[in-house]
Amino acid sequence: MVLVAFLISPAAHAASPVLQLDIKGAIGPAVSNYVEHGLEQAKQMQAQLVILRMDTPGGLDQSMRSIIQAILASPVPVATFVAPSGSRAASAGTYILYASHIAAMAPGTNLGAATPVQISGIGGGPSSPSPPLTPPKLPEKLDKNAKPAQEQKAAPPNDSSMHRKMVNDAAAYIRSLAQMRGRNADWAEKAVRQAASLSATQALEKQVIDLMATNAADLLGKLDGKTIKTVSGEHTLHTVGITIEKLEPSWPNRMLSIITDPNVAYILMLLGVYGLFFELANPGFVLPGVIGGICLLLALFAFQVLPVNFAGLALIGLGIAFMIAEVFMPSFGALGLGGVIAFIIGSIMLMDTGVPGFALSLALIIGVALTSAAFFILIASMALKARRRPVVSGSEEMVSALGEAVEDFDTQGNIHIHGEIWQATANTPIKKGQTVRVTGMDGLVLSVGPVNTKEDTS
Predict the structure, then answer these.
(1) What pLDDT was estimated at residue 5?
(2) Catalytic one among 24, 165, 206, 431?
(3) Which residue in the list 16, 63, 74, 91 is annotated as catalytic?
(4) Which residues lie closer than 8 Å to 220 by C-beta, 6 or more apart?
(5) Which of 82, 91, 68, 87 shows the shortest CA–CA distance to 355?
(6) Which domains does the chain have, with CATH numbers?
(7) Under the phi-then-psi rule, with left for phi > 0, alpha for psi from -120 to 50, and beta for the rest, what region is 412?
(8) N- to C-terminal Cα separation, the chain
(9) Torsion, Cα of 344, 346, 350, 351 (10° steps)
(10) In the chain, which end has fewer C-beta atoms inside a 10 angstrom radius, N or C?
């Protein structure tokens, strides 16, 4: 980690520092790792406060919960600050804001829309806001004309028991965080069940956040003298003119952030597969196999921490296998077309989470699919042309080749062919300088016959 001090006051040297962590973009494994290490660093340097400046559209549930657990266990107070103006703390960001010891927002920011998204391969994609769950009303009397239950319209996917379980779990989770911090628990549940959102001013009025500040310096000024309770006890903040130290991600964390980008992980997987395929098809090149192996291992590591749909992964593998099979077993395009279709469908399914920042780019999928198809079609066409091309070397090429007798002979003599002198046998007498055609080959002895007409030499 790299520390950068950006607000220094001579009177601040005697006080404990304030550490700032920046979250910008989707919350994933790299962000979770960065925040956890940052809070540990703050504990070691005995910082009096950690500012978690946040601008996020949401993220993965597992990464969000890891961050919240680290905040709840932190002996150093954590102030989550949605800033600068124009930022948001949507979805997972709302949970983190509720979990923090201090919740603050800059003017022109917003939070909410915390309805959980189903990220499994079945029924993936964003979920619509769910209405509050109320007990069903029983009819006063039975209607004889009512349709049987099995004939009634099926409930939409969002009303499924699985979705209700997810929403209920998320609502209970954020309500418990709100009760722990003394914030508006009713609105927190509304943000989960109805995907409600608030501006910074509305959030302050509804007691969702503790205060509003224009920037980090303004935030520190408003926090001065406040007493915050953490797992290690109560802490009174002395933040006027304090030094703010910005914690930059370390290079391993930056690398983790790059390779866990779904688009990068997808490209690494394809480079790995194609590299190993090229190495197996052309043993001895070494470099494609080495690069392919490294890329494939990096992709597998990224998939380990990403919500990967294994059905989509299997379809991608099947599509690649079909396209490769088209090269070796020409099927007039059936295998190749099926491979392209399976490849595209599998790529779309691979990480179709509905979470911003964790879905594959459709343009990338189509581009890679068309490039792969064009590559394999090119190889197949080249192989077909090579198959139809006349033989130009070896014993097969020698048969039907034309040569010239270098001497008179009745049954055995020498001929000149391809710039070389060969022994030849014939069933009829051959004259010196006469054109002959090779009719067979036995070891290093050619069988020839005379060419007497122009049609024979054409």
Answers:
(1) 46
(2) 165
(3) 91
(4) 18, 49, 239, 240, 242, 244
(5) 91
(6) 2-133+157-253 (3.90.226.10), 259-388 (no CATH), 394-457 (2.40.50.140)
(7) beta
(8) 79
(9) 40
(10) C
Nearest by Cα to 416 from 457, 454, 448, 443:
448
What is the Cα–Cα distance from 195 to 170, expressed in whole angstroms? 12
Assigned token pair, 268: 């690494």
- Chain segment 43-83, per-residue pLDDT in tens: 999 999 999 999 999 888 889 999 999 999 999 999 999 99
* SS3 (DSSP) at 314: helix
- Whether 165 is a known active-site residue: answer yes
pTM: 0.68
Sheet holding 49-55, edge to edge: 2-7, 244-248, 18-24, 49-55, 78-82, 102-105, 211-212
Q: Are 123 and 157 in contact (CB under 8 A)?
A: yes
Please give the pLDDT value at position 361: 82
Q: Please state the length of the chain.
A: 458
Segment-wise mean pLDDT, segments of 10 residues, the chain, 458 residues: 46 69 91 94 94 93 93 96 95 95 96 76 36 39 42 44 87 94 94 94 95 94 93 90 88 86 89 84 82 90 82 88 75 77 87 69 85 76 68 70 89 88 90 89 87 57
Burial class (CB in 10 A: 0-12, 13-18, 19+), 380: buried
